[in-house]
Amino acid sequence: MHEHDVLVIGGGGAGLRAAIAAHEEGADVAIVTKLHPVRSHTGAAEGGINAALRDADSWEDHAYDTMKGSDFLGDAPAIETFAKNAPEEVINLEHWGMPFSREDDGRVSQRPFGGLSFPRTTYAGAETGHHMLHTMYEQVVKRGIEVYDEWYVTRLAVTDHDDPEDRVCHGCVAYDIKTGELAGFQASGGVILATGGLGQAFDHTTNAVANTGDGPAMAYRAGVPVEDMEMIQFHPTTLPSTGVLISEGVRGEGGILYNDEGERLMFEYGYANNEGELASRDVVARAELTEVNEGRGIDDEYVHLDMRHLGEERILDRLENILHLAEDFEGVDGLEEPMPVKPGQHYAMGGIEVDENGETCIDGLYAAGECACVSMHGANRLGGNALPELLVFGGRAGAHAGGRDLGEAQIPTGQSAKSEDEDVDTPVAPGAIDTGDEDVAADGALVDPDEVVDHHVDVEEQRVESLLEKDDGVNHAEVRADVQETMTQNVNVFREESNLKEALEDLRVARERYQDVYVRDPSRTFNTDLIHTIETRNIIDVAEAITLGALAREEFRGAHWRAEHQERKDEDWIKHTMLAWNDGNPDLYYKPVILEGEDKTYEPKERSY
Amino acid sequence: MSTEVQEQETETEAETEPAESPHQSRRMEQKRQRAAQRDLEEEARTEIDDAEETVEIKVFRFDPEVAGKEEPRFDTFHVPFFKGMTVLDALIYARDHYDSSLTFRHSCRQAICGSDALFVNGTQRLGCKTQIADLEDHLSSTIRIEPLPHQEVVKDLVVDMEHFYDQMEAVEPFFDADELPDGELEEQRQDRENREKIKMSTRCIWCGACMSSCNIAAGDNEYLGPAAINKAYRFAMDEREGESRKQERLNIIEQEHGVWRCQTQFSCTEVCPKDIPLTEHIQELKREAVKNNLKFW
After folding, report:
1. Catalytic residue among A62, A235, A281, A537
2. ipTM score of the complex?
């Protein structure tokens, strides 16, 4: 068994930041990650990092923009903590040597982004995430923090108390991809989930293949509620053939969207008469799809994003990476032609319920970054807010697990924070079919850390063994493809009750088929077949949580558009959708949104751009 | 890795040779037979019948612990071709439709995670960034896909990256300013020109293509190699680090297995998927080293 004070699961931006923070508290930290840290998807972030750095700007404005962007589904204590801490985090990165783009006076550059009242997005060309990921990994190397790379965490080691809020997380079970060896990891200070996105639940996504929602799925099954899972961001500018992201920085620098008639659609059809292309992402994504649906799309599929007028010099200085992406993945020269773009799944606003110190309702279990929901993005994340979020809350989770007193959290977690229970009318029973050895066995006896970790290793050993031993059955790739297809067909930008129900039925079929899944590759050496099979189970669980949440939320808020409910219903719906696993049967309940900040209360207003 | 590998031609589906252990042999045989009846393979056959064009890829296979795969060989797969298809797409198709044991690293599929550097038709390339249509005669001949040369093969197309990571870490790859500005929220100023100077060097995605293409690295296991030297360049040329740190960095790269090993063959520069002028950076550090103290090995 491996023992450390703090275990960080995931080696992307949030995980690295958390590890550095815990290390600074003097903790013995280890990072366990299924990829080598520099392979993490944070590296694909392009646009930038929002922070109120200039005298003419203020954290209060950043907080207000974020609350408005969230369509008033964000929690004020999270948003204010975030906006106050973001500048320090950006300067930290700068002090660690991050190669930011620079102004003439040598300060870091800032540019406009959608939904921001001040150009507060700091950046490094159009490859900000790459530089941030590498800069932080360098600091991890400098500090000698231990990294278990290409180790896949399959299960959390949690005590078996009946009530999730009594449970304690003592570590996890991980699988050495190179050798196939399963091992227990014990952490006395805390386990921090920083597993990133869940885009692989959809088939047109900007997310990496590794983004399979492992963190939310594992935490959910261990008893932590997942929050606002229906809130999925579709980025307006992804390349049609692959889903590769074209940064919002293009529109930030002045890029223009045109339909097939050559009209500047954002103004021509009144989607955003003030902000145009720089309205928030949900607004632009719907505008583009409306154009396509009304026959003004190009090839009935996409619209054009034009940056030619910005001039070669500016493009090369600030958006060079975009030229390479358009060329390599779509065969288009962005200096000569407009680029084809359409909306694609991009980000999960929801995730594992945590407070502003990164803690879940299970003692010793933390989450940070995209896999977590603080909640600060609410119903729509502003471009440039993901990277500072993982810095601020990754840092806080790491510091807290490492022993620093961050004060009492203002955001309540766990079922005791509930405002009301809800039943949702589903066509099929959601949840696990045969929970068997998957669940936390609840007899209240298993509490000793060593035994808890050993027990979970045994359970995983059996699971892996049976997957490898099984001679025939269903290939995970078939199940995964079916899930991705139904999610993209039915739980996309535009949502209707009948489609959501159809998706639930398809997910039920996927669960049934998954009961018969097998791993064809019998090898213990680098068995990606096995990893993808385990991931596919996680994809099913998060896909179902997304769909259930979407069916339950009968209103139109932020990224969540419903055909039958074309207005934001503040009286009923300023509340978070919560799902708790409850032995495989998802319990749906609600938790009030906190609109009261430290000095002011955020009044919901109509969101116009 | 053996250079002489057995070539095995199969129709569409990868075959495995009879196993030595009867139990494993039975399991493999059953798995193979059942798999052949799966929907995905039928789908693949239909897609191939319907496809206007198909591509044939010949993929290196090796698994040290599976009977029939411990001798390196090539498997051939036919996949339907579509416009925009990349080498990685073809591999994923083969894996998901024919043989899920086909093993390779990949994640972002947009040339930033650096995990799918492969040896395609004799050149180091990123699978995700290499359009099949850009490979010569892609529809009439077979595309040959192998693991990166000069690295130990773990399984199929996966190579052991430990040595590469060790070399990267040997140059102390982290920023180390002499002093930070007063005031917590003060930046260290950096000239735009200085940022431009280091810009290309910061684009490295650690894919290892350069190291694998380098004849010198192949013959001298201790040579720091182009990626690590480029990493050293990134810091040595950053004006925000002070002179004394630069001196220490030069000491590292001008050691016996450092910059002086480079024979300017430009193979690293040619294969770099991020267009980093690696050879030039190495030469510039040689000049710095000369100015520094004229030490030749």
Report:
1. A235
2. 0.94
Q: Which residues in chain A are closer than 8 Å to B103, comparing Cβ atoms? A: 521, 526-529
Task: Please name the residues in contact with A66: beta carbons below 8 A apart, sequence gap of 6 or more.
Answer: A74, A79, A82, A83, A376, A377, A382, A385
Q: Residues A130, A131, A251, A480: which is the catalytic one?
A: A251
Active site residue A309: no
Of A448, A4, A432, nearest in space to A191 by CA: A4
In angstroms, the CA A355 to CA A374 distance is: 6
- Cα(A339)–Cα(B129) distance, integer angstroms: 18
Task: Place A196 in a pLDDT band, splitting at 50, 70 and 90.
Answer: very high
pTM of the model as a whole: 0.94
| Cross-chain residue pair A102–B155, CB shorter than 8 Å | no
Question: Residue A105: which of B35, B129, B189 has the nearest Cβ?
Answer: B189
Tens digit of each residue's pLDDT (9 = 90 or more) over B202-224: 999 999 999 999 999 999 999 99
Reply yes or no on whether A107 is catalytic. no
Q: Which residue has the tokens 């190699």?
A: B225
In Å, how far from its chain's centre is CA B160? Answer: 11
- Please answer yes or no on whether A44 and B84 come within 8 Å at the CB atom: no
Chain A contacts of B112, Cβ < 8 Å? 43-44, 127, 130
Cβ neighbours of residue B118 under 8 Å, at least 6 residues apart?
B87, B104, B124, B125, B126, B127, B145, B146, B147, B148, B157
Contacts of B284 (CB under 8 A, 6+ apart): B233, B237
Starting from the edge strand earliest in sequence, which strands make up the sheet with A232-238, in order? A232-238, A339-348, A303-306, A256-258
**Tens-digit pLDDT profile for residues B280-291:** 999 999 999 888
CB A175 within 8 A of CB A181: yes
